[in-house]
Amino acid sequence: MSEAPTPTPTTEEKARPKRSGGPGTSATLRTSGIARVPDNNNLKPSLFGTAFQINQKNYYTDYLRRDDQIMFYREWNEEQRRVKEQKNAPAGTGASTPLADGVQSDAQQPAEEKIPQGAKTIVIHIGSRNLRVGLASQAYPKTTPFVIAHRMAANGANEEEDQRIPPRGEEMSDSMFGDDFKNAADAVNRDFRERMRFYKRRIVPNSHELVVSFNKRVKGHAESIPDHNDPGRIEWTEPGANERYITGERALNLPTDSGYKLRWPVQHGLFNETDYNSPQELLGDIALILVDALERELGLGVREYGEYSIVLIVPDLYQRSYVEALIQLLLQMGLARVCILQEAIAATFGAGVSTACVIDIGAQTTKISCVEEGMVIPDSRVNLKMGGDDITLALTKLLLRSYFPYDEIDLSRSYDMALANELKHKYATTNDADLTVQHYSFYQRAPGKRTQKFEFKTFEEVMLAPLGLFYPALFEQGEKQARWCTKYNRATGTRVPARYSLFPKAMDIYEEDASSDPVSLAQVALDGGSLSIYKEEEDSTSGAPPTADSTPAPAASGNDDEDPEPEKKQKKFPAGAIDPLEPALTGLDHAVIESVTQAVAAKSGLPVGTRQHRETLQMQRGFYENLLVVGGGVSALPGFNVLLVDRVSMWLNHAERPLVPASANAVNANSAGADKRTTDDYISVMPPPREMDPQMITWKGGGVFAKLKIVGECWVSARDWDMLGARTLQYKSLFSY
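Structure tokens predicted for Actin-related protein 8:
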């Protein structure tokens, strides 16, 4: 059977395209005319034009590279132009264009109304215990305790009691404050006696027994003094029925049963988040204290705030939340403008020097920073959570171990705290020549009671307490950290974490889990226990930050002849890895050496180690020869400057890091006429200028800065703050914010 012939396709059938596959196939889409085939339908894949790659050889921009492109500089230049026009305007024209923020220049003031320079600028320095405030034109500030007393509610009696001095039993002993304090006190006592033997100071063998026996004998024989015979009688505060709060010295003089509770909004140089439940409550107390201080000390009413500017002195190693909250608070109070200045820079301005290692010992903090040519070296900043209050507490405990006759002393009461501070200022010393058995007397004053006169004897207690600055174990830093980093929960009766509970840590917007608060490598080394003075050789990873699971490692061995390029120091740390403001168990002498070492490393670019020490002796001497001790923590201690120089020199020599080259030592040993200077000769503490109180030097520097021409570029107004917020400080501060 033959097959049927295949039909020949017609012309119309040849023109018709073949269909293959089902719906959705490429052939079907092409047949339908909706396939994205440029060759067939000429459709573009996008409605936007193609962005070609920039030729990097010809790429150039000057965006934000010129001052006239920044708003603040344009406004400042415009203001200067208006001031110049007003000075050159003919007399009697009456042209008076108001300047920014409603603040008038000297040219706008009539001749008969000329005011002293700085008379419209207020300098504010907030410490851990005191507030220093005054006009920049004044010679000295007004000092008032930074405390407020609120009338307690009916249910406000469930607060936790202050246990800084725990209850004593009937019979006192050396271990009455715990084994940790006993061991720390014994260690300091041993080193103290070694020091006395080294300097050939004679110690009576039974000195402590003589003190104890006398104090036991006079206990209970206090002399009662009538009020009219008491020259130092205290005028106790009698609050009015409508006074809801009392601030300053009047708050400290309140009777214990007055129904008020004392609060310190700032502690350890930070906001006191332990005693407050909301940031508004804390900032409200600060505002009340400032308003009362400005009215009582300077005579300024709230309606006059718009005529005054503020120079706010802030810590060197600050928290951004602390600085920004204070600036916003001052601007909301109605003050015209605010300018910030770091404490170390203010101290150098007040002392009249440009290069120094500033050691600021306050009531609760000790801050160290190296300043060169009027600028703080960032990696040299150190913040230790110890100060004059710790010396007071340690002295009180040591006196009670020696059977102090007034054994009912309780530092949670303001009048007993004042008594302990008085004993410290009068009798504590760091001068070896003053150490002997001494017979003293003091007056104990309490509200509603007659003044009591006590007699007592002391020996080594008056020097062991200040030595705690070099032996921080005596201050029980661990227990103190647990107290001020946690808060009391009334509901559970326990303590819960308090740090960053009201003011969260400032976080970096570009890096995940990284804090934007400033970080100092000196502080990191102290917190991690990796002091650079013990590094024998260069460590190429010395600039690397510690991780959450590790601490800074000691330097690895290397070759001194090599010149490794130091790695760029990373300034950002994971948020949970390290807290630069946590208490470090490091003595003051080690902290000074670490600060200077990191400052020299930042200047020279060499990693810390023996080679860096040899090649930077001149840089180190520039800081060690200009130690500047400010603050009120040790201002009343005789011989402290000599003790500090001795301790720093001792540790430099012990670590084989003398400030004299090794070749010079060999020459001096063989030559009778050669220079015989030692490390001690290159370390010195500058005396206060013009016999000024060291407590006032930092505030005085703020007043000096307020009179400089450059301050005109640093003012932050309410309009600036509302527009850019904290970013304003990047353009209007002397340091890198």
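The longest strand covers residues 451-458.
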